[in-house]
Amino acid sequence: MTTSYRIALIPGDGIGTEVLPPACAVLDAVGKRHGLTFAYDSFDWSCQRYLDQGAMMPADGLDRIRNHDAILLGAVGWPGVPDHVSLWGLLIPIRRQFRQYVNLRPIKVLEGVPSPVAKATSDVSFVVVRENVEGEYSEIGGRLNRGFPEEMAVQEAVFTRAGTERILHYAFETAKGRTGRLVSATKSNGIVHTMPFWDEIAKEVGDRYPEVSWRQEHIDALAAKVILDPGRFDVIVGSNLFGDILSDLAAAVAGSIGIAPAANLNPEREFPSMFEPVHGSAPDIAGQGVANPIGAIWSASMMLDHLGHPEAGAEVLDAFATVLATTDARTPDLGGTASTKEFTELVLGNIASR
Ligand code: NAI
Ligand code: MG
Protein backbone atom coordinates (compact mmCIF):
# COMPACT_ATOMS: atom_id res chain seq x y z
CA MET A 1 0.00 0.00 0.00
CA THR A 2 1.26 3.47 -0.82
CA THR A 3 0.60 6.50 1.33
CA SER A 4 0.82 9.86 -0.43
CA TYR A 5 1.66 13.21 1.11
CA ARG A 6 1.37 16.74 -0.23
CA ILE A 7 4.28 18.85 0.92
CA ALA A 8 4.50 22.65 0.63
CA LEU A 9 8.07 23.67 -0.20
CA ILE A 10 9.30 27.15 0.67
CA PRO A 11 12.95 27.22 -0.43
CA GLY A 12 13.30 30.93 0.43
CA ASP A 13 16.59 32.70 -0.17
CA GLY A 14 20.26 31.90 -0.67
CA ILE A 15 21.27 28.38 0.29
CA GLY A 16 17.66 27.67 1.27
CA THR A 17 17.13 26.96 -2.43
CA GLU A 18 20.20 24.69 -2.51
CA VAL A 19 19.40 22.46 0.47
CA LEU A 20 15.74 21.66 -0.22
CA PRO A 21 16.32 19.63 -3.43
CA PRO A 22 18.64 17.25 -1.51
CA ALA A 23 16.02 16.90 1.24
CA CYS A 24 13.32 16.05 -1.34
CA ALA A 25 15.62 13.57 -3.13
CA VAL A 26 16.24 11.80 0.18
CA LEU A 27 12.50 11.76 0.99
CA ASP A 28 11.75 10.22 -2.41
CA ALA A 29 14.48 7.59 -1.98
CA VAL A 30 13.48 6.53 1.51
CA GLY A 31 9.79 6.78 0.56
CA LYS A 32 10.32 4.13 -2.13
CA ARG A 33 11.46 1.66 0.52
CA HIS A 34 8.54 2.41 2.84
CA GLY A 35 5.57 2.80 0.49
CA LEU A 36 5.45 6.60 0.75
CA THR A 37 5.16 9.11 -2.07
CA PHE A 38 5.50 12.86 -1.86
CA ALA A 39 3.94 15.48 -4.12
CA TYR A 40 5.64 18.85 -3.79
CA ASP A 41 4.16 22.30 -4.38
CA SER A 42 6.86 24.94 -4.40
CA PHE A 43 6.24 28.56 -3.36
CA ASP A 44 8.61 31.41 -4.23
CA TRP A 45 8.03 33.28 -0.94
CA SER A 46 11.30 35.01 -0.15
CA CYS A 47 13.16 38.29 0.18
CA GLN A 48 13.45 38.31 -3.60
CA ARG A 49 9.66 38.30 -3.78
CA TYR A 50 9.56 41.07 -1.17
CA LEU A 51 11.87 43.21 -3.31
CA ASP A 52 9.87 42.51 -6.49
CA GLN A 53 6.31 42.60 -5.12
CA GLY A 54 6.48 44.24 -1.71
CA ALA A 55 5.53 41.21 0.41
CA MET A 56 7.27 38.02 1.47
CA MET A 57 4.14 36.03 0.60
CA PRO A 58 0.77 36.77 -1.00
CA ALA A 59 -2.11 37.97 1.20
CA ASP A 60 -3.79 34.55 0.96
CA GLY A 61 -0.47 32.73 1.42
CA LEU A 62 -1.46 30.81 4.52
CA ASP A 63 -4.66 29.56 2.86
CA ARG A 64 -2.60 28.14 0.02
CA ILE A 65 -0.65 25.85 2.32
CA ARG A 66 -3.22 25.22 5.05
CA ASN A 67 -4.27 21.87 3.66
CA HIS A 68 -0.83 20.45 2.93
CA ASP A 69 0.40 17.60 5.11
CA ALA A 70 3.58 19.45 6.07
CA ILE A 71 5.78 22.40 5.15
CA LEU A 72 9.47 22.14 4.34
CA LEU A 73 11.31 25.46 4.51
CA GLY A 74 14.87 26.28 3.42
CA ALA A 75 15.82 29.67 4.88
CA VAL A 76 14.73 33.26 4.43
CA GLY A 77 16.76 36.44 4.74
CA TRP A 78 18.89 38.49 2.39
CA PRO A 79 21.15 41.55 2.67
CA GLY A 80 19.14 44.68 1.89
CA VAL A 81 15.94 43.32 3.43
CA PRO A 82 15.79 43.88 7.19
CA ASP A 83 15.73 40.57 9.07
CA HIS A 84 12.56 41.53 10.94
CA VAL A 85 10.77 41.80 7.57
CA SER A 86 11.65 38.25 6.54
CA LEU A 87 10.91 36.91 10.01
CA TRP A 88 7.63 38.74 10.72
CA GLY A 89 6.51 38.62 7.06
CA LEU A 90 6.73 34.86 6.71
CA LEU A 91 8.09 32.64 9.47
CA ILE A 92 6.25 34.09 12.42
CA PRO A 93 2.84 34.25 10.68
CA ILE A 94 3.20 30.57 9.72
CA ARG A 95 4.27 29.54 13.22
CA ARG A 96 1.52 31.53 14.94
CA GLN A 97 -1.43 31.07 12.57
CA PHE A 98 -0.77 27.34 12.33
CA ARG A 99 -0.38 27.11 16.12
CA GLN A 100 3.07 25.57 15.84
CA TYR A 101 3.74 26.16 19.49
CA VAL A 102 6.51 23.60 19.82
CA ASN A 103 9.93 24.25 18.37
CA LEU A 104 11.83 21.00 18.64
CA ARG A 105 15.56 20.82 18.11
CA PRO A 106 17.47 17.57 18.52
CA ILE A 107 21.19 17.88 19.25
CA LYS A 108 23.51 14.96 18.52
CA VAL A 109 27.25 14.86 18.31
CA LEU A 110 27.77 12.74 15.19
CA GLU A 111 30.72 10.44 14.74
CA GLY A 112 33.17 12.10 12.36
CA VAL A 113 32.04 15.64 13.16
CA PRO A 114 34.38 17.07 15.78
CA SER A 115 32.78 19.30 18.37
CA PRO A 116 34.49 22.51 19.51
CA VAL A 117 33.66 21.32 23.02
CA ALA A 118 36.22 18.81 24.26
CA LYS A 119 33.74 16.90 26.43
CA ALA A 120 31.16 16.51 23.68
CA THR A 121 31.55 12.88 22.63
CA SER A 122 29.17 10.90 20.47
CA ASP A 123 27.02 9.97 23.47
CA VAL A 124 25.74 13.56 23.58
CA SER A 125 22.13 13.46 22.45
CA PHE A 126 19.39 15.71 23.76
CA VAL A 127 16.49 17.81 22.56
CA VAL A 128 15.61 21.42 23.21
CA VAL A 129 11.87 22.07 23.41
CA ARG A 130 11.27 25.76 22.82
CA GLU A 131 7.98 27.60 23.28
CA ASN A 132 7.34 28.99 19.82
CA VAL A 133 4.40 31.41 19.78
CA GLU A 134 4.38 33.66 22.85
CA GLY A 135 6.70 34.69 25.68
CA GLU A 136 9.32 37.32 25.07
CA TYR A 137 8.67 37.58 21.32
CA SER A 138 5.51 39.61 21.55
CA GLU A 139 4.09 42.51 19.60
CA ILE A 140 2.91 44.21 22.76
CA GLY A 141 4.80 47.36 23.59
CA GLY A 142 5.87 50.54 21.89
CA ARG A 143 8.17 53.50 21.70
CA LEU A 144 7.70 56.99 23.05
CA ASN A 145 9.50 60.33 22.78
CA ARG A 146 11.57 59.40 19.78
CA GLY A 147 14.56 61.66 19.36
CA PHE A 148 14.43 63.10 22.89
CA PRO A 149 16.69 62.23 25.79
CA GLU A 150 13.73 60.55 27.51
CA GLU A 151 13.13 58.29 24.49
CA MET A 152 11.94 54.90 25.63
CA ALA A 153 11.03 51.42 24.44
CA VAL A 154 8.82 48.89 26.20
CA GLN A 155 8.23 45.31 25.15
CA GLU A 156 6.04 43.05 27.22
CA ALA A 157 6.71 39.34 27.66
CA VAL A 158 3.43 37.43 27.51
CA PHE A 159 3.05 34.12 29.30
CA THR A 160 -0.40 32.57 29.30
CA ARG A 161 -1.38 29.62 31.46
CA ALA A 162 -2.63 27.71 28.41
CA GLY A 163 0.53 28.40 26.43
CA THR A 164 2.88 27.56 29.29
CA GLU A 165 1.01 24.40 30.27
CA ARG A 166 0.91 22.96 26.78
CA ILE A 167 4.64 23.43 26.07
CA LEU A 168 5.59 21.95 29.44
CA HIS A 169 3.18 19.08 28.88
CA TYR A 170 4.79 18.42 25.49
CA ALA A 171 8.26 18.50 27.05
CA PHE A 172 7.34 16.09 29.85
CA GLU A 173 5.74 13.72 27.33
CA THR A 174 8.93 13.88 25.27
CA ALA A 175 11.06 13.13 28.33
CA LYS A 176 8.78 10.23 29.23
CA GLY A 177 9.41 8.73 25.79
CA ARG A 178 13.18 9.15 26.13
CA THR A 179 15.28 8.57 29.24
CA GLY A 180 12.93 10.42 31.59
CA ARG A 181 15.17 13.35 32.49
CA LEU A 182 14.16 16.98 32.01
CA VAL A 183 15.53 20.42 32.83
CA SER A 184 13.27 23.48 32.80
CA ALA A 185 15.08 26.72 32.00
CA THR A 186 14.13 29.61 34.26
CA LYS A 187 15.37 32.92 35.60
CA SER A 188 12.97 33.43 38.46
CA ASN A 189 15.65 35.08 40.58
CA GLY A 190 15.80 38.07 38.20
CA ILE A 191 12.57 38.03 36.23
CA VAL A 192 10.10 38.13 39.07
CA HIS A 193 6.66 37.80 37.46
CA THR A 194 6.72 35.61 34.37
CA MET A 195 9.42 33.19 35.44
CA PRO A 196 7.95 32.25 38.85
CA PHE A 197 4.68 31.71 36.93
CA TRP A 198 6.55 29.39 34.51
CA ASP A 199 8.13 27.55 37.48
CA GLU A 200 4.78 27.07 39.24
CA ILE A 201 3.25 25.56 36.14
CA ALA A 202 6.33 23.38 35.59
CA LYS A 203 5.79 21.99 39.09
CA GLU A 204 2.07 21.39 38.46
CA VAL A 205 2.72 19.60 35.18
CA GLY A 206 5.76 17.78 36.59
CA ASP A 207 3.67 16.39 39.44
CA ARG A 208 1.60 14.58 36.81
CA TYR A 209 4.73 12.81 35.50
CA PRO A 210 6.17 10.85 38.42
CA GLU A 211 8.26 8.83 35.94
CA VAL A 212 10.17 11.94 34.80
CA SER A 213 12.96 13.20 37.01
CA TRP A 214 13.21 16.93 36.50
CA ARG A 215 14.64 20.10 37.96
CA GLN A 216 14.74 23.77 37.07
CA GLU A 217 17.98 25.64 36.37
CA HIS A 218 18.66 29.31 35.81
CA ILE A 219 19.35 30.03 32.17
CA ASP A 220 22.78 31.57 32.76
CA ALA A 221 24.15 28.61 34.72
CA LEU A 222 22.37 26.22 32.37
CA ALA A 223 24.09 27.76 29.33
CA ALA A 224 27.45 27.19 30.98
CA LYS A 225 26.57 23.57 31.73
CA VAL A 226 25.55 22.89 28.14
CA ILE A 227 29.16 23.70 27.25
CA LEU A 228 30.87 22.14 30.27
CA ASP A 229 28.93 18.90 30.46
CA PRO A 230 26.56 18.41 27.49
CA GLY A 231 26.32 14.65 28.09
CA ARG A 232 24.11 15.07 31.14
CA PHE A 233 21.08 16.46 29.29
CA ASP A 234 18.14 14.66 27.77
CA VAL A 235 15.28 17.18 27.38
CA ILE A 236 15.60 20.91 28.04
CA VAL A 237 12.43 23.02 27.92
CA GLY A 238 12.48 26.80 27.74
CA SER A 239 10.50 29.90 26.87
CA ASN A 240 10.68 31.39 23.38
CA LEU A 241 13.80 33.49 24.08
CA PHE A 242 15.61 31.03 26.34
CA GLY A 243 14.86 28.15 23.98
CA ASP A 244 16.07 30.15 20.99
CA ILE A 245 19.42 30.96 22.56
CA LEU A 246 19.94 27.53 24.09
CA SER A 247 19.18 25.71 20.87
CA ASP A 248 21.70 27.74 18.85
CA LEU A 249 24.27 27.25 21.58
CA ALA A 250 23.58 23.53 21.59
CA ALA A 251 23.80 23.39 17.78
CA ALA A 252 27.29 24.85 18.05
CA VAL A 253 28.20 22.09 20.51
CA ALA A 254 27.24 19.57 17.82
CA GLY A 255 29.90 21.01 15.52
CA SER A 256 28.21 23.04 12.77
CA ILE A 257 25.15 25.15 12.27
CA GLY A 258 24.89 23.43 8.87
CA ILE A 259 23.76 20.12 10.36
CA ALA A 260 21.17 21.32 12.90
CA PRO A 261 17.49 20.56 12.19
CA ALA A 262 14.30 22.01 13.63
CA ALA A 263 10.60 21.22 13.68
CA ASN A 264 7.79 23.71 14.32
CA LEU A 265 5.01 21.45 15.50
CA ASN A 266 1.28 21.75 15.86
CA PRO A 267 0.92 18.64 18.04
CA GLU A 268 -2.88 18.60 17.65
CA ARG A 269 -2.47 18.38 13.86
CA GLU A 270 -5.15 21.02 13.21
CA PHE A 271 -2.63 22.65 10.85
CA PRO A 272 0.47 21.55 8.95
CA SER A 273 3.74 21.53 10.89
CA MET A 274 6.87 23.10 9.44
CA PHE A 275 10.35 21.59 9.21
CA GLU A 276 13.43 23.71 8.56
CA PRO A 277 17.18 23.65 9.06
CA VAL A 278 18.35 25.93 11.85
CA HIS A 279 20.76 27.83 9.62
CA GLY A 280 19.94 30.91 7.59
CA SER A 281 20.41 31.76 3.92
CA ALA A 282 24.23 32.05 4.23
CA PRO A 283 24.76 34.83 1.67
CA ASP A 284 28.53 34.34 2.03
CA ILE A 285 28.43 30.91 0.34
CA ALA A 286 25.15 31.09 -1.59
CA GLY A 287 25.33 30.12 -5.25
CA GLN A 288 28.52 28.10 -4.88
CA GLY A 289 26.87 24.70 -4.50
CA VAL A 290 28.76 23.93 -1.28
CA ALA A 291 26.07 24.31 1.37
CA ASN A 292 25.84 21.46 3.84
CA PRO A 293 22.52 19.71 3.12
CA ILE A 294 22.45 17.77 6.42
CA GLY A 295 20.35 20.33 8.34
CA ALA A 296 17.65 20.17 5.67
CA ILE A 297 17.87 16.37 5.28
CA TRP A 298 17.64 15.87 9.05
CA SER A 299 14.62 18.22 9.13
CA ALA A 300 12.99 16.02 6.47
CA SER A 301 13.68 13.04 8.74
CA MET A 302 11.82 14.85 11.55
CA MET A 303 8.96 15.37 9.12
CA LEU A 304 8.81 11.62 8.53
CA ASP A 305 8.64 11.07 12.31
CA HIS A 306 5.80 13.57 12.59
CA LEU A 307 3.88 12.01 9.70
CA GLY A 308 3.98 8.71 11.57
CA HIS A 309 6.94 6.99 9.89
CA PRO A 310 9.67 6.92 12.52
CA GLU A 311 11.35 3.89 10.94
CA ALA A 312 11.80 5.84 7.68
CA GLY A 313 12.99 8.88 9.67
CA ALA A 314 15.55 6.77 11.52
CA GLU A 315 16.83 5.37 8.23
CA VAL A 316 17.52 8.88 6.93
CA LEU A 317 19.42 9.74 10.11
CA ASP A 318 21.40 6.55 9.90
CA ALA A 319 22.19 7.15 6.20
CA PHE A 320 23.96 10.49 6.64
CA ALA A 321 25.51 9.46 9.96
CA THR A 322 27.00 6.41 8.22
CA VAL A 323 28.38 8.51 5.35
CA LEU A 324 30.04 10.82 7.91
CA ALA A 325 31.39 7.95 10.00
CA THR A 326 32.70 5.80 7.15
CA THR A 327 33.91 8.26 4.48
CA ASP A 328 35.89 11.50 4.32
CA ALA A 329 33.14 13.21 2.34
CA ARG A 330 32.18 16.49 3.95
CA THR A 331 31.12 19.92 2.76
CA PRO A 332 33.59 22.77 3.42
CA ASP A 333 31.91 23.91 6.66
CA LEU A 334 32.99 20.54 8.10
CA GLY A 335 36.48 20.84 6.67
CA GLY A 336 35.94 18.85 3.48
CA THR A 337 35.79 19.58 -0.23
CA ALA A 338 32.55 17.85 -1.23
CA SER A 339 29.82 19.82 -2.98
CA THR A 340 26.22 19.74 -1.81
CA LYS A 341 25.46 17.42 -4.72
CA GLU A 342 28.36 15.04 -4.08
CA PHE A 343 27.49 14.64 -0.41
CA THR A 344 23.81 14.14 -1.24
CA GLU A 345 24.69 11.42 -3.81
CA LEU A 346 26.51 9.47 -1.09
CA VAL A 347 23.50 9.68 1.22
CA LEU A 348 21.20 8.53 -1.61
CA GLY A 349 23.64 5.70 -2.40
CA ASN A 350 23.56 4.57 1.21
CA ILE A 351 19.75 4.49 1.21
CA ALA A 352 19.65 2.61 -2.09
CA SER A 353 22.07 0.00 -0.76
CA ARG A 354 19.78 -1.02 2.08
P1 NAI B 1 23.54 31.81 8.54
O1 NAI B 1 23.10 30.56 9.25
O2 NAI B 1 22.93 32.05 7.23
O3 NAI B 1 25.14 31.74 8.35
C1 NAI B 1 26.06 31.76 9.42
C2 NAI B 1 27.39 31.13 8.97
O4 NAI B 1 27.22 29.71 8.87
C3 NAI B 1 27.83 31.58 7.59
O5 NAI B 1 29.23 31.69 7.57
C4 NAI B 1 27.37 30.47 6.68
O6 NAI B 1 28.16 30.32 5.53
C5 NAI B 1 27.46 29.25 7.57
N1 NAI B 1 26.43 28.27 7.22
C6 NAI B 1 25.11 28.32 7.57
N2 NAI B 1 24.46 27.26 7.06
C7 NAI B 1 25.36 26.54 6.38
C8 NAI B 1 25.28 25.33 5.64
N3 NAI B 1 24.14 24.65 5.49
N4 NAI B 1 26.42 24.87 5.07
C9 NAI B 1 27.58 25.51 5.22
N5 NAI B 1 27.72 26.65 5.91
C10 NAI B 1 26.62 27.16 6.49
O7 NAI B 1 23.30 33.02 9.52
P2 NAI B 1 23.47 34.60 9.25
O8 NAI B 1 24.65 34.83 8.38
O9 NAI B 1 23.40 35.21 10.57
O10 NAI B 1 22.15 35.03 8.49
C11 NAI B 1 22.05 35.17 7.08
C12 NAI B 1 20.61 35.45 6.74
O11 NAI B 1 19.80 34.32 7.06
C13 NAI B 1 20.03 36.63 7.50
O12 NAI B 1 19.24 37.37 6.61
C14 NAI B 1 19.18 35.98 8.57
O13 NAI B 1 18.10 36.76 8.96
C15 NAI B 1 18.72 34.74 7.88
N6 NAI B 1 18.36 33.65 8.82
C16 NAI B 1 17.23 32.96 8.52
C17 NAI B 1 16.84 31.90 9.31
C18 NAI B 1 15.64 31.13 8.91
O14 NAI B 1 15.19 31.21 7.78
N7 NAI B 1 15.06 30.35 9.81
C19 NAI B 1 17.61 31.50 10.49
C20 NAI B 1 18.83 32.27 10.68
C21 NAI B 1 19.16 33.31 9.86
MG1 MG C 1 17.90 31.33 16.74
Indicate the multimeric state.
single chain
Mean pLDDT: 96
Q: Overall 3D geometry?
A: globular
| End-to-end distance | 20 Å
Number of helices: 11
Order of helices and strands: EHEHHEHEEEEHEHEHEHEEHHH
- CATH homology superfamily name of the largest domain: Isopropylmalate Dehydrogenase
Strand order of the largest sheet: 2-1-3-12-11-4-5-10-8-9
Radius of gyration, whole Å: 20 Å
Percentage of residues assigned to helices: 40-55%
Strand content range: 15-25%
Total number of beta strands: 12
> Main beta sheet: strand number and arrangement?
10 strands, mixed
The CATH topology of the largest domain is given as: Isopropylmalate Dehydrogenase
Q: What is the CATH class name of the largest domain?
A: Alpha Beta
Secondary-structure class: alpha/beta
What are its keywords?
354 residues, binds magnesium ion, alpha/beta, Isopropylmalate Dehydrogenase, ten-stranded mixed β-sheet, 2 domains, two-stranded antiparallel ribbon, binds 1,4-dihydronicotinamide adenine dinucleotide
Describe this structure in words.
With 354 residues, this protein is α/β, with parallel strands linked by helices. It has two domains: 1-100 and 257-354, 3-Layer(aba) Sandwich (Isopropylmalate Dehydrogenase); 115-254, Isopropylmalate Dehydrogenase (3-Layer(aba) Sandwich). It is built from eleven helices and twelve strands. It has helices at 16-34, 47-53, 61-65, 83-97, 161-176, 194-207, 219-228, 240-253, 294-306, 310-326, 340-352, and strands at 3-12, 36-42, 70-75, 102-108, 125-131, 141-144, 152-155, 181-186, 213-218, 235-238, 261-265, 273-277. The chain has a ten-stranded mixed β-sheet, sandwiched between helices. Helix 1 runs parallel beside helix 11 (340-352). Bound molecules: 1,4-dihydronicotinamide adenine dinucleotide (NAI) and magnesium ion (MG). 1,4-dihydronicotinamide adenine dinucleotide binds at residues 15, 75-78, 83, 86, 91, 257-258, 276, 279-285, 291-292, 295, 331, 333. Magnesium ion binds at residues 244, 248.
